[in-house]
Design brief:
CATH class of the domain at 54-140 in chain B: Alpha Beta
Order of helices and strands of chain B: HEHEEHEEH
Distance between the termini of chain A: 41 Å
Oligomer: heterodimer
Number of strands of chain A: 0
Largest sheet of chain B: 3 strands, antiparallel
CATH topology of the domain at 54-140 in chain B: Alpha-Beta Plaits
Helix content of chain A: 55-70%
Structural class of chain A: mainly alpha
Number of strands of chain B: 5
Chain lengths: 371, 195
Protein backbone atom coordinates (compact mmCIF):
# COMPACT_ATOMS: atom_id res chain seq x y z
CA UNK A 1 0.00 0.00 0.00
CA UNK A 2 2.85 2.39 0.80
CA UNK A 3 4.60 1.70 -2.48
CA UNK A 4 1.34 2.46 -4.26
CA UNK A 5 1.06 5.69 -2.27
CA UNK A 6 4.62 6.59 -3.25
CA UNK A 7 3.96 6.01 -6.94
CA UNK A 8 0.74 8.00 -6.67
CA UNK A 9 2.57 10.93 -5.10
CA UNK A 10 5.19 10.72 -7.84
CA UNK A 11 2.67 10.79 -10.64
CA UNK A 12 0.52 13.49 -9.04
CA UNK A 13 2.89 16.11 -7.54
CA UNK A 14 -0.10 17.92 -6.04
CA UNK A 15 -0.37 15.15 -3.48
CA UNK A 16 3.14 15.75 -2.12
CA UNK A 17 1.75 18.65 -0.11
CA UNK A 18 -0.23 16.17 2.01
CA UNK A 19 1.67 14.11 4.57
CA UNK A 20 2.64 10.60 3.47
CA UNK A 21 0.54 8.86 6.12
CA UNK A 22 -2.56 10.75 5.04
CA UNK A 23 -2.16 9.58 1.43
CA UNK A 24 -1.59 6.03 2.65
CA UNK A 25 -4.62 6.19 4.92
CA UNK A 26 -6.83 7.56 2.17
CA UNK A 27 -5.63 4.77 -0.13
CA UNK A 28 -6.31 2.13 2.52
CA UNK A 29 -9.82 3.44 3.17
CA UNK A 30 -10.49 3.57 -0.57
CA UNK A 31 -9.24 0.02 -1.04
CA UNK A 32 -11.31 -1.16 1.92
CA UNK A 33 -14.45 0.49 0.62
CA UNK A 34 -13.91 -0.86 -2.88
CA UNK A 35 -13.42 -4.40 -1.60
CA UNK A 36 -16.42 -4.12 0.72
CA UNK A 37 -18.62 -2.83 -2.07
CA UNK A 38 -17.39 -5.62 -4.32
CA UNK A 39 -18.09 -8.18 -1.62
CA UNK A 40 -21.58 -6.86 -0.94
CA UNK A 41 -22.40 -6.80 -4.63
CA UNK A 42 -21.07 -10.30 -5.00
CA UNK A 43 -23.28 -11.44 -2.15
CA UNK A 44 -26.35 -9.83 -3.62
CA UNK A 45 -25.83 -11.18 -7.09
CA UNK A 46 -24.54 -14.46 -5.66
CA UNK A 47 -27.71 -15.04 -3.69
CA UNK A 48 -29.77 -14.40 -6.81
CA UNK A 49 -27.62 -16.74 -8.92
CA UNK A 50 -27.75 -19.35 -6.17
CA UNK A 51 -31.52 -19.31 -6.26
CA UNK A 52 -31.65 -19.31 -10.04
CA UNK A 53 -29.24 -22.26 -10.20
CA UNK A 54 -31.32 -24.04 -7.59
CA UNK A 55 -34.38 -23.41 -9.70
CA UNK A 56 -32.77 -24.73 -12.85
CA UNK A 57 -31.42 -27.84 -11.16
CA UNK A 58 -34.71 -28.60 -9.45
CA UNK A 59 -36.65 -28.06 -12.72
CA UNK A 60 -38.22 -24.86 -11.39
CA UNK A 61 -37.92 -21.27 -12.53
CA UNK A 62 -36.60 -19.50 -9.47
CA UNK A 63 -37.25 -15.88 -8.53
CA UNK A 64 -38.75 -14.04 -11.51
CA UNK A 65 -41.08 -11.40 -10.10
CA UNK A 66 -38.88 -8.48 -9.02
CA UNK A 67 -37.58 -6.70 -12.07
CA UNK A 68 -37.12 -8.28 -15.50
CA UNK A 69 -36.55 -12.00 -15.03
CA UNK A 70 -36.18 -11.44 -11.28
CA UNK A 71 -32.77 -9.78 -11.50
CA UNK A 72 -33.67 -7.24 -8.82
CA UNK A 73 -34.67 -9.91 -6.32
CA UNK A 74 -31.51 -9.41 -4.28
CA UNK A 75 -32.34 -5.72 -3.78
CA UNK A 76 -35.77 -6.68 -2.49
CA UNK A 77 -34.18 -9.26 -0.19
CA UNK A 78 -31.68 -6.71 1.08
CA UNK A 79 -34.35 -4.11 1.76
CA UNK A 80 -36.42 -6.72 3.54
CA UNK A 81 -33.49 -7.77 5.73
CA UNK A 82 -32.71 -4.17 6.68
CA UNK A 83 -36.30 -3.25 7.44
CA UNK A 84 -37.12 -6.29 9.58
CA UNK A 85 -37.45 -5.79 13.29
CA UNK A 86 -34.23 -6.43 15.17
CA UNK A 87 -35.28 -8.91 17.85
CA UNK A 88 -33.21 -9.93 20.83
CA UNK A 89 -34.60 -12.78 22.93
CA UNK A 90 -35.43 -11.85 26.49
CA UNK A 91 -33.19 -14.48 28.09
CA UNK A 92 -30.32 -13.95 25.66
CA UNK A 93 -26.94 -12.66 26.70
CA UNK A 94 -27.41 -9.28 25.08
CA UNK A 95 -23.76 -8.26 24.74
CA UNK A 96 -22.56 -11.55 23.26
CA UNK A 97 -25.69 -11.81 21.15
CA UNK A 98 -24.91 -8.45 19.56
CA UNK A 99 -21.20 -9.18 19.25
CA UNK A 100 -21.45 -12.55 17.48
CA UNK A 101 -22.61 -11.42 14.01
CA UNK A 102 -19.82 -8.88 13.82
CA UNK A 103 -17.19 -11.49 14.65
CA UNK A 104 -18.51 -13.80 11.96
CA UNK A 105 -18.69 -10.95 9.46
CA UNK A 106 -15.21 -9.66 10.27
CA UNK A 107 -13.73 -13.15 10.19
CA UNK A 108 -15.14 -13.74 6.77
CA UNK A 109 -14.28 -10.33 5.34
CA UNK A 110 -10.78 -10.00 6.73
CA UNK A 111 -9.82 -12.76 4.31
CA UNK A 112 -10.58 -10.46 1.38
CA UNK A 113 -7.50 -8.45 2.34
CA UNK A 114 -5.04 -10.83 0.69
CA UNK A 115 -7.09 -11.98 -2.28
CA UNK A 116 -4.96 -11.41 -5.41
CA UNK A 117 -7.53 -9.78 -7.68
CA UNK A 118 -5.07 -8.79 -10.39
CA UNK A 119 -1.44 -8.15 -11.34
CA UNK A 120 -1.13 -5.31 -8.87
CA UNK A 121 -4.62 -5.53 -7.39
CA UNK A 122 -4.36 -6.98 -3.97
CA UNK A 123 -5.59 -4.97 -0.99
CA UNK A 124 -2.47 -6.11 0.88
CA UNK A 125 0.06 -8.59 -0.45
CA UNK A 126 1.05 -10.16 2.87
CA UNK A 127 4.06 -12.43 2.80
CA UNK A 128 2.09 -14.88 4.96
CA UNK A 129 -1.05 -14.70 2.81
CA UNK A 130 -2.22 -18.32 2.97
CA UNK A 131 -1.47 -18.55 6.65
CA UNK A 132 -3.34 -15.30 7.27
CA UNK A 133 -6.45 -16.53 5.47
CA UNK A 134 -6.43 -19.75 7.47
CA UNK A 135 -6.07 -17.75 10.68
CA UNK A 136 -8.76 -15.13 10.15
CA UNK A 137 -11.34 -17.52 8.79
CA UNK A 138 -10.99 -19.45 12.04
CA UNK A 139 -12.33 -16.38 13.81
CA UNK A 140 -15.70 -17.36 12.39
CA UNK A 141 -15.81 -20.30 14.83
CA UNK A 142 -15.83 -17.96 17.80
CA UNK A 143 -18.61 -15.88 16.34
CA UNK A 144 -20.71 -18.91 15.49
CA UNK A 145 -20.24 -20.42 18.93
CA UNK A 146 -21.05 -17.12 20.59
CA UNK A 147 -24.18 -16.79 18.51
CA UNK A 148 -25.26 -20.29 19.49
CA UNK A 149 -24.49 -19.79 23.14
CA UNK A 150 -25.84 -16.26 23.57
CA UNK A 151 -29.18 -17.04 21.90
CA UNK A 152 -30.18 -19.20 24.89
CA UNK A 153 -31.92 -21.59 22.55
CA UNK A 154 -31.30 -25.31 22.34
CA UNK A 155 -31.25 -25.44 18.53
CA UNK A 156 -28.89 -22.49 18.34
CA UNK A 157 -26.58 -24.05 20.91
CA UNK A 158 -26.52 -27.38 19.09
CA UNK A 159 -25.91 -25.63 15.78
CA UNK A 160 -23.13 -23.53 17.23
CA UNK A 161 -21.42 -26.54 18.76
CA UNK A 162 -21.70 -28.48 15.52
CA UNK A 163 -20.32 -25.55 13.58
CA UNK A 164 -17.39 -25.24 15.94
CA UNK A 165 -16.60 -28.96 15.77
CA UNK A 166 -16.92 -28.94 12.00
CA UNK A 167 -14.82 -25.86 11.33
CA UNK A 168 -12.08 -26.96 13.70
CA UNK A 169 -12.00 -30.45 12.16
CA UNK A 170 -11.90 -29.29 8.58
CA UNK A 171 -9.31 -26.59 9.22
CA UNK A 172 -6.62 -29.28 9.11
CA UNK A 173 -7.40 -30.80 5.71
CA UNK A 174 -7.93 -27.33 4.25
CA UNK A 175 -4.52 -26.20 5.44
CA UNK A 176 -2.80 -29.39 4.41
CA UNK A 177 -4.39 -29.28 0.97
CA UNK A 178 -3.20 -25.71 0.41
CA UNK A 179 0.39 -26.41 1.38
CA UNK A 180 1.29 -28.15 -1.93
CA UNK A 181 0.68 -24.85 -3.74
CA UNK A 182 2.87 -23.12 -1.18
CA UNK A 183 5.58 -25.75 -1.68
CA UNK A 184 5.55 -25.37 -5.45
CA UNK A 185 5.74 -21.58 -5.27
CA UNK A 186 8.12 -21.50 -2.34
CA UNK A 187 6.19 -18.65 -0.79
CA UNK A 188 3.15 -18.10 1.42
CA UNK A 189 2.22 -14.90 -0.37
CA UNK A 190 -0.77 -15.41 -2.61
CA UNK A 191 0.63 -13.05 -5.27
CA UNK A 192 3.84 -15.12 -5.40
CA UNK A 193 1.82 -18.32 -5.67
CA UNK A 194 -0.13 -16.86 -8.59
CA UNK A 195 3.04 -15.60 -10.29
CA UNK A 196 4.65 -19.03 -10.00
CA UNK A 197 1.87 -20.44 -12.18
CA UNK A 198 2.40 -18.07 -15.08
CA UNK A 199 4.82 -18.50 -17.92
CA UNK A 200 4.64 -19.81 -21.43
CA UNK A 201 2.99 -23.11 -20.52
CA UNK A 202 -0.35 -21.34 -20.25
CA UNK A 203 -3.05 -23.57 -18.91
CA UNK A 204 -0.52 -26.25 -18.04
CA UNK A 205 1.52 -23.91 -15.90
CA UNK A 206 -1.27 -24.05 -13.33
CA UNK A 207 -0.62 -25.92 -10.12
CA UNK A 208 -3.63 -28.07 -10.98
CA UNK A 209 -1.58 -29.80 -13.70
CA UNK A 210 1.81 -29.53 -11.99
CA UNK A 211 1.78 -33.15 -10.92
CA UNK A 212 -0.87 -35.74 -9.97
CA UNK A 213 -0.59 -34.88 -6.30
CA UNK A 214 -1.39 -31.21 -6.78
CA UNK A 215 -4.41 -32.25 -8.82
CA UNK A 216 -5.64 -34.38 -5.94
CA UNK A 217 -4.88 -31.65 -3.45
CA UNK A 218 -7.10 -29.29 -5.44
CA UNK A 219 -9.99 -31.72 -5.16
CA UNK A 220 -9.25 -32.35 -1.50
CA UNK A 221 -9.06 -28.62 -0.84
CA UNK A 222 -12.32 -27.97 -2.60
CA UNK A 223 -14.11 -30.71 -0.66
CA UNK A 224 -12.70 -29.70 2.70
CA UNK A 225 -13.28 -26.01 2.09
CA UNK A 226 -16.92 -26.62 1.31
CA UNK A 227 -17.20 -28.26 4.68
CA UNK A 228 -15.25 -25.53 6.42
CA UNK A 229 -17.59 -22.86 5.11
CA UNK A 230 -20.70 -24.91 5.99
CA UNK A 231 -21.84 -25.31 2.42
CA UNK A 232 -24.74 -27.59 1.82
CA UNK A 233 -23.52 -31.16 1.71
CA UNK A 234 -21.91 -30.26 5.02
CA UNK A 235 -24.33 -27.63 6.34
CA UNK A 236 -24.89 -29.48 9.58
CA UNK A 237 -24.80 -26.29 11.69
CA UNK A 238 -27.97 -25.03 10.07
CA UNK A 239 -29.62 -28.29 9.11
CA UNK A 240 -33.16 -27.00 8.66
CA UNK A 241 -34.77 -30.37 9.07
CA UNK A 242 -33.32 -31.01 12.51
CA UNK A 243 -32.10 -27.69 13.92
CA UNK A 244 -34.63 -25.29 12.37
CA UNK A 245 -31.81 -23.07 11.17
CA UNK A 246 -28.98 -23.65 13.61
CA UNK A 247 -26.90 -21.01 15.30
CA UNK A 248 -28.78 -18.11 13.72
CA UNK A 249 -32.35 -19.12 14.66
CA UNK A 250 -32.85 -16.24 17.04
CA UNK A 251 -31.37 -13.61 14.76
CA UNK A 252 -33.48 -11.35 12.61
CA UNK A 253 -33.10 -8.27 10.48
CA UNK A 254 -29.69 -6.90 9.78
CA UNK A 255 -27.95 -9.19 12.28
CA UNK A 256 -29.19 -12.19 10.38
CA UNK A 257 -28.12 -10.35 7.24
CA UNK A 258 -24.56 -10.24 8.55
CA UNK A 259 -24.50 -14.03 8.98
CA UNK A 260 -25.91 -14.38 5.52
CA UNK A 261 -23.30 -12.04 4.05
CA UNK A 262 -20.52 -13.86 5.88
CA UNK A 263 -21.67 -17.15 4.38
CA UNK A 264 -21.45 -15.75 0.86
CA UNK A 265 -18.16 -14.05 1.68
CA UNK A 266 -16.76 -17.43 2.74
CA UNK A 267 -18.00 -18.90 -0.50
CA UNK A 268 -16.09 -16.34 -2.52
CA UNK A 269 -12.96 -16.72 -0.37
CA UNK A 270 -12.94 -20.47 -0.97
CA UNK A 271 -13.39 -19.96 -4.69
CA UNK A 272 -10.74 -17.23 -4.76
CA UNK A 273 -8.21 -19.34 -2.86
CA UNK A 274 -8.84 -22.34 -5.09
CA UNK A 275 -8.34 -20.08 -8.10
CA UNK A 276 -5.21 -18.44 -6.77
CA UNK A 277 -3.55 -21.61 -5.51
CA UNK A 278 -4.49 -24.13 -8.17
CA UNK A 279 -6.11 -22.49 -11.18
CA UNK A 280 -3.47 -19.94 -12.02
CA UNK A 281 -5.11 -16.98 -10.30
CA UNK A 282 -5.15 -13.93 -12.56
CA UNK A 283 -2.80 -15.48 -15.13
CA UNK A 284 -4.22 -15.24 -18.62
CA UNK A 285 -3.27 -18.43 -20.50
CA UNK A 286 -0.42 -17.92 -23.01
CA UNK A 287 -0.29 -14.21 -22.27
CA UNK A 288 1.55 -12.16 -19.71
CA UNK A 289 -0.81 -9.55 -18.31
CA UNK A 290 2.01 -7.96 -16.29
CA UNK A 291 3.61 -6.71 -19.54
CA UNK A 292 0.62 -4.59 -20.51
CA UNK A 293 0.23 -0.99 -19.35
CA UNK A 294 -0.79 -1.13 -15.65
CA UNK A 295 -4.41 -0.12 -16.21
CA UNK A 296 -5.17 -2.63 -18.96
CA UNK A 297 -3.06 -5.34 -17.39
CA UNK A 298 -4.89 -4.95 -14.11
CA UNK A 299 -8.30 -4.88 -15.73
CA UNK A 300 -7.58 -7.93 -17.87
CA UNK A 301 -6.14 -9.93 -14.98
CA UNK A 302 -9.02 -8.84 -12.72
CA UNK A 303 -11.51 -10.06 -15.30
CA UNK A 304 -9.72 -13.39 -15.68
CA UNK A 305 -9.45 -13.88 -11.94
CA UNK A 306 -13.11 -13.06 -11.36
CA UNK A 307 -14.19 -15.31 -14.22
CA UNK A 308 -12.28 -18.24 -12.71
CA UNK A 309 -13.47 -17.49 -9.19
CA UNK A 310 -17.11 -17.17 -10.23
CA UNK A 311 -16.83 -20.41 -12.13
CA UNK A 312 -15.67 -22.06 -8.93
CA UNK A 313 -18.57 -20.45 -7.05
CA UNK A 314 -20.90 -21.88 -9.66
CA UNK A 315 -19.41 -25.34 -9.14
CA UNK A 316 -19.92 -24.91 -5.39
CA UNK A 317 -23.57 -24.10 -5.99
CA UNK A 318 -23.85 -27.07 -8.30
CA UNK A 319 -22.49 -29.37 -5.60
CA UNK A 320 -24.72 -27.67 -3.10
CA UNK A 321 -27.89 -28.53 -4.98
CA UNK A 322 -26.76 -32.04 -5.82
CA UNK A 323 -25.70 -33.75 -2.65
CA UNK A 324 -27.86 -34.51 0.37
CA UNK A 325 -26.74 -33.48 3.83
CA UNK A 326 -24.39 -35.77 5.74
CA UNK A 327 -25.03 -37.04 9.24
CA UNK A 328 -22.91 -35.64 12.07
CA UNK A 329 -20.94 -38.85 12.55
CA UNK A 330 -20.46 -39.21 8.80
CA UNK A 331 -19.18 -35.65 8.68
CA UNK A 332 -16.62 -36.26 11.40
CA UNK A 333 -15.61 -39.59 9.90
CA UNK A 334 -15.09 -37.98 6.54
CA UNK A 335 -12.79 -35.39 8.04
CA UNK A 336 -10.73 -37.50 10.43
CA UNK A 337 -10.68 -40.84 8.66
CA UNK A 338 -10.57 -39.81 5.04
CA UNK A 339 -9.63 -36.20 4.36
CA UNK A 340 -6.94 -35.77 7.01
CA UNK A 341 -4.94 -38.92 6.12
CA UNK A 342 -5.40 -38.31 2.41
CA UNK A 343 -4.17 -34.74 2.61
CA UNK A 344 -1.13 -35.84 4.61
CA UNK A 345 -0.30 -38.59 2.10
CA UNK A 346 -0.83 -36.07 -0.64
CA UNK A 347 1.46 -33.55 1.01
CA UNK A 348 4.11 -36.24 1.32
CA UNK A 349 3.65 -37.08 -2.35
CA UNK A 350 4.07 -33.47 -3.46
CA UNK A 351 7.14 -33.02 -1.25
CA UNK A 352 8.74 -36.17 -2.66
CA UNK A 353 7.92 -35.14 -6.20
CA UNK A 354 9.48 -31.72 -5.73
CA UNK A 355 12.52 -33.33 -4.15
CA UNK A 356 12.96 -36.01 -6.83
CA UNK A 357 12.28 -33.88 -9.90
CA UNK A 358 13.84 -30.68 -8.53
CA UNK A 359 10.58 -28.75 -8.47
CA UNK A 360 9.64 -29.52 -12.07
CA UNK A 361 6.08 -30.41 -12.95
CA UNK A 362 4.96 -32.87 -15.63
CA UNK A 363 4.14 -30.15 -18.24
CA UNK A 364 7.56 -28.56 -17.71
CA UNK A 365 9.26 -31.92 -18.21
CA UNK A 366 7.31 -32.58 -21.39
CA UNK A 367 8.14 -29.09 -22.60
CA UNK A 368 11.85 -29.60 -21.90
CA UNK A 369 11.80 -32.89 -23.83
CA UNK A 370 10.57 -31.04 -26.90
CA UNK A 371 12.98 -28.21 -26.18
CA UNK B 1 -12.48 -52.32 7.45
CA UNK B 2 -9.26 -53.03 5.68
CA UNK B 3 -7.37 -50.91 3.23
CA UNK B 4 -9.42 -52.38 0.41
CA UNK B 5 -12.68 -51.25 1.98
CA UNK B 6 -11.19 -47.85 2.70
CA UNK B 7 -10.17 -47.29 -0.90
CA UNK B 8 -13.49 -48.70 -2.08
CA UNK B 9 -15.29 -46.10 0.07
CA UNK B 10 -13.30 -43.26 -1.44
CA UNK B 11 -13.86 -44.48 -4.99
CA UNK B 12 -17.55 -44.92 -4.32
CA UNK B 13 -17.84 -41.42 -2.87
CA UNK B 14 -16.17 -39.89 -5.93
CA UNK B 15 -18.15 -41.98 -8.42
CA UNK B 16 -21.54 -41.39 -6.83
CA UNK B 17 -20.89 -37.67 -6.47
CA UNK B 18 -19.94 -37.46 -10.13
CA UNK B 19 -23.05 -39.38 -11.09
CA UNK B 20 -25.28 -37.09 -9.06
CA UNK B 21 -23.63 -33.99 -10.44
CA UNK B 22 -24.11 -35.25 -13.99
CA UNK B 23 -27.84 -35.61 -13.35
CA UNK B 24 -28.20 -32.16 -11.80
CA UNK B 25 -26.14 -30.64 -14.59
CA UNK B 26 -28.47 -32.14 -17.16
CA UNK B 27 -31.46 -30.64 -15.37
CA UNK B 28 -29.66 -27.35 -14.86
CA UNK B 29 -28.71 -26.93 -18.50
CA UNK B 30 -31.92 -28.15 -20.11
CA UNK B 31 -34.47 -25.33 -19.95
CA UNK B 32 -37.29 -27.59 -21.09
CA UNK B 33 -37.28 -29.44 -17.79
CA UNK B 34 -39.14 -26.68 -15.99
CA UNK B 35 -42.36 -27.90 -14.43
CA UNK B 36 -43.40 -24.64 -12.79
CA UNK B 37 -46.79 -23.25 -13.77
CA UNK B 38 -46.92 -19.48 -13.36
CA UNK B 39 -50.24 -19.75 -11.58
CA UNK B 40 -52.18 -16.52 -11.77
CA UNK B 41 -51.18 -16.05 -15.43
CA UNK B 42 -51.21 -19.67 -16.52
CA UNK B 43 -53.89 -22.18 -15.58
CA UNK B 44 -53.88 -25.92 -15.83
CA UNK B 45 -56.71 -27.68 -17.59
CA UNK B 46 -59.43 -28.74 -15.19
CA UNK B 47 -59.93 -32.50 -15.60
CA UNK B 48 -63.34 -34.00 -16.14
CA UNK B 49 -65.09 -34.93 -12.93
CA UNK B 50 -63.12 -32.32 -11.02
CA UNK B 51 -64.67 -31.66 -7.64
CA UNK B 52 -64.60 -27.92 -7.23
CA UNK B 53 -67.00 -25.70 -5.34
CA UNK B 54 -70.54 -27.00 -5.07
CA UNK B 55 -73.32 -25.30 -6.93
CA UNK B 56 -77.02 -25.90 -6.43
CA UNK B 57 -79.44 -25.02 -9.17
CA UNK B 58 -82.27 -23.94 -6.86
CA UNK B 59 -84.83 -23.93 -9.69
CA UNK B 60 -84.42 -27.68 -9.99
CA UNK B 61 -83.88 -28.41 -6.31
CA UNK B 62 -86.74 -30.28 -4.68
CA UNK B 63 -85.65 -29.59 -1.09
CA UNK B 64 -85.54 -33.31 -0.42
CA UNK B 65 -82.71 -32.83 2.16
CA UNK B 66 -80.85 -35.90 0.90
CA UNK B 67 -77.68 -33.87 0.61
CA UNK B 68 -78.04 -32.56 4.15
CA UNK B 69 -78.46 -36.05 5.50
CA UNK B 70 -75.58 -37.60 3.57
CA UNK B 71 -73.02 -34.86 4.22
CA UNK B 72 -70.37 -36.33 6.54
CA UNK B 73 -69.23 -32.94 7.80
CA UNK B 74 -72.64 -31.25 7.99
CA UNK B 75 -71.67 -28.36 5.83
CA UNK B 76 -74.99 -28.06 4.00
CA UNK B 77 -77.88 -26.38 5.76
CA UNK B 78 -81.29 -26.26 4.16
CA UNK B 79 -84.56 -24.65 5.19
CA UNK B 80 -87.75 -25.33 3.30
CA UNK B 81 -91.42 -24.79 3.88
CA UNK B 82 -94.37 -26.49 2.28
CA UNK B 83 -95.96 -24.18 -0.24
CA UNK B 84 -99.62 -23.71 -1.08
CA UNK B 85 -99.41 -26.33 -3.86
CA UNK B 86 -97.96 -28.90 -1.44
CA UNK B 87 -94.51 -28.53 -3.05
CA UNK B 88 -91.52 -27.66 -0.87
CA UNK B 89 -90.24 -24.10 -1.22
CA UNK B 90 -86.58 -23.46 -0.45
CA UNK B 91 -86.21 -20.76 2.15
CA UNK B 92 -82.43 -20.99 2.38
CA UNK B 93 -79.74 -23.25 1.00
CA UNK B 94 -76.25 -22.61 2.41
CA UNK B 95 -73.03 -24.55 1.95
CA UNK B 96 -70.14 -23.81 4.30
CA UNK B 97 -67.44 -24.22 1.69
CA UNK B 98 -64.79 -23.78 4.36
CA UNK B 99 -65.99 -26.96 6.00
CA UNK B 100 -66.76 -28.97 2.85
CA UNK B 101 -64.28 -31.74 2.16
CA UNK B 102 -65.30 -32.24 -1.47
CA UNK B 103 -66.20 -35.90 -1.02
CA UNK B 104 -68.95 -35.62 -3.62
CA UNK B 105 -71.51 -37.72 -1.73
CA UNK B 106 -74.17 -35.00 -1.90
CA UNK B 107 -73.77 -34.76 -5.67
CA UNK B 108 -74.11 -38.51 -6.07
CA UNK B 109 -77.19 -38.65 -3.92
CA UNK B 110 -79.08 -35.67 -5.34
CA UNK B 111 -82.30 -37.00 -6.99
CA UNK B 112 -83.00 -34.07 -9.39
CA UNK B 113 -79.24 -33.70 -10.10
CA UNK B 114 -79.47 -30.05 -9.21
CA UNK B 115 -76.38 -30.11 -6.96
CA UNK B 116 -73.15 -30.15 -9.00
CA UNK B 117 -69.43 -29.73 -8.54
CA UNK B 118 -68.20 -26.76 -10.54
CA UNK B 119 -64.60 -26.24 -11.64
CA UNK B 120 -64.19 -23.28 -9.28
CA UNK B 121 -61.39 -23.46 -6.75
CA UNK B 122 -60.49 -19.85 -6.00
CA UNK B 123 -61.97 -18.07 -3.04
CA UNK B 124 -60.54 -15.87 -0.37
CA UNK B 125 -61.99 -14.14 2.62
CA UNK B 126 -60.78 -12.47 5.75
CA UNK B 127 -62.95 -14.50 8.08
CA UNK B 128 -64.31 -18.02 8.08
CA UNK B 129 -67.91 -16.82 8.21
CA UNK B 130 -67.56 -15.39 4.72
CA UNK B 131 -66.80 -18.80 3.27
CA UNK B 132 -70.50 -19.74 3.26
CA UNK B 133 -72.14 -19.93 -0.14
CA UNK B 134 -75.76 -18.73 -0.14
CA UNK B 135 -77.83 -20.05 -3.02
CA UNK B 136 -81.16 -18.40 -2.21
CA UNK B 137 -80.66 -14.69 -2.63
CA UNK B 138 -83.74 -13.62 -0.65
CA UNK B 139 -84.01 -13.53 3.10
CA UNK B 140 -85.26 -16.84 4.54
CA UNK B 141 -87.76 -15.13 6.88
CA UNK B 142 -89.27 -13.16 4.02
CA UNK B 143 -89.78 -16.25 1.91
CA UNK B 144 -91.29 -18.09 4.84
CA UNK B 145 -93.66 -15.21 5.57
CA UNK B 146 -94.64 -14.96 1.91
CA UNK B 147 -95.24 -18.69 1.59
CA UNK B 148 -97.24 -18.67 4.83
CA UNK B 149 -99.33 -15.81 3.48
CA UNK B 150 -99.90 -17.64 0.20
CA UNK B 151 -100.82 -20.83 2.05
CA UNK B 152 -103.24 -18.89 4.22
CA UNK B 153 -104.73 -17.18 1.17
CA UNK B 154 -105.07 -20.48 -0.60
CA UNK B 155 -106.69 -22.00 2.47
CA UNK B 156 -109.05 -19.05 2.76
CA UNK B 157 -109.93 -19.32 -0.91
CA UNK B 158 -110.44 -23.03 -0.60
CA UNK B 159 -112.65 -22.51 2.42
CA UNK B 160 -114.58 -19.82 0.57
CA UNK B 161 -114.91 -22.02 -2.49
CA UNK B 162 -116.04 -24.88 -0.29
CA UNK B 163 -118.52 -22.63 1.42
CA UNK B 164 -119.75 -21.35 -1.94
CA UNK B 165 -119.98 -24.91 -3.22
CA UNK B 166 -121.85 -25.95 -0.11
CA UNK B 167 -124.17 -23.03 -0.55
CA UNK B 168 -124.60 -23.89 -4.21
CA UNK B 169 -125.14 -27.52 -3.27
CA UNK B 170 -127.67 -26.49 -0.74
CA UNK B 171 -129.29 -24.25 -3.34
CA UNK B 172 -129.18 -26.56 -6.34
CA UNK B 173 -128.68 -29.87 -4.65
CA UNK B 174 -126.20 -31.20 -7.12
CA UNK B 175 -122.78 -29.63 -7.92
CA UNK B 176 -119.25 -30.86 -8.08
CA UNK B 177 -116.79 -29.62 -5.45
CA UNK B 178 -114.57 -26.94 -6.99
CA UNK B 179 -110.88 -27.34 -7.22
CA UNK B 180 -108.62 -25.21 -5.02
CA UNK B 181 -108.22 -21.91 -6.77
CA UNK B 182 -104.71 -20.97 -5.67
CA UNK B 183 -102.02 -21.36 -8.30
CA UNK B 184 -98.50 -22.48 -7.50
CA UNK B 185 -96.60 -19.85 -5.55
CA UNK B 186 -94.20 -17.75 -7.52
CA UNK B 187 -90.76 -19.34 -7.28
CA UNK B 188 -88.15 -16.93 -5.92
CA UNK B 189 -86.04 -15.32 -8.66
CA UNK B 190 -83.17 -17.69 -9.20
CA UNK B 191 -80.04 -15.62 -9.58
CA UNK B 192 -76.87 -17.50 -8.82
CA UNK B 193 -74.79 -16.38 -5.93
CA UNK B 194 -71.40 -15.75 -7.44
CA UNK B 195 -68.36 -16.25 -5.34
Amino acid sequence: MESLALSLVKSFPVLSAAPMWAVSLALMVTAGVVVLVFALTFEGVGSLVLRKVAGDIQARIGPNRVGPNGILQFLADGVKLVLKEDLIPEKADRFLFKLAPYLVFVGSFAAFVVVPFGVGLSPADLNIGVYYVMAVTSLVVIGVMLAGWASNNKWALLGGMRAAAQIVSYEIPVGMALIPAVLVAGSLSLQDIVRSQGGLLGLFGWNLFHNPFTFFSFILYFTAAQAETNQTPFDLPEAESELVSGYNVEYSGIRFGLFFLAEFGDMFIVAALATACFLGGWNVPFFNAALLPPLWGNLLSLGVFLAKAFLMVLVMMWVRWTLPRLRVDQLMRMSWKYLVPLTFVNLLGVSLWLLLFRGKGIPQMIASVFG
Amino acid sequence: MGLKGYIHDIVEAVVTTAKGMRITARYGVDPKEEVTLQYPEERWEIPQGYRGFLHNDIKACTSCTMCVKVCPVDCISLEAVRGADKKMVLASYDIDIGRCMYCGLCVEVCPPKSLKHTSGYEMASVSRGELVLHFVPEDAAEIKARVARQVAEAAAKAAEAAKAAEAAKAAEGSAEPPKPAAGPPEPPPATEKKE
